[in-house]
């Protein structure tokens, strides 16, 4: 009996714990592939001074390129201190709506104070999650991801859960009116950027089509427009992108 016990316990003593690849991922994202690239750390919410950005005409040019018009309903994801939020609110006017979202509770509180102070009655505030923007379905003509996508830690879960919120056409069969607008920088991930090829691949992997792209370094990077096409792939059917540099 003693030798039998030793025969059982010796292998156990020599076992090493196998790391769980999903250990540090949110449980809500584990059905989706993990990011196949480095993910930038969260940066400060004030990417540049608002005065400097306005001198470059950044927001005005981006909104024009996005085809923004009065009466539209838009979302500002990763809204931060509200640079785009307040300008989007002015552009869509009283008949339009803006939902400003961020995952930082303290930032959300400051943004809510700003919205209240500026009496922006067409703006709502919402707390999101790293793997889920938590937007209402079939609601938005434009969704803006400005200088934040490179910080999304679960890109496949995030983009998949973003899709249903994009407004379909009147018969509900396509997404003719709704688009996702991305503004980011073509530089290494550790420098808070993402190469365009990586961006295009990740959007395509979850069923988006690139419908417009331009490089605008004077406005802080590049500009891309995406539209969902076809059915959203199931989490297990998503093929993660190889690292693009």
TrEMBL record:
The keyword Transferase applies. Residues 18-56 are annotated as: Disordered. GO terms for molecular function: methyltransferase activity. Keywords: Methyltransferase, Transferase. Transmembrane segments: none annotated. GO terms for biological process: methylation. Residues 74-163 form the Methyltransferase domain. It comes from the Bacteria. CDD domains: AdoMet_MTases (cd02440). Residues 18-28 have a biased composition (Basic and acidic residues). The keyword Methyltransferase applies. This is Class I SAM-dependent methyltransferase. It comes from Parasphingorhabdus cellanae.
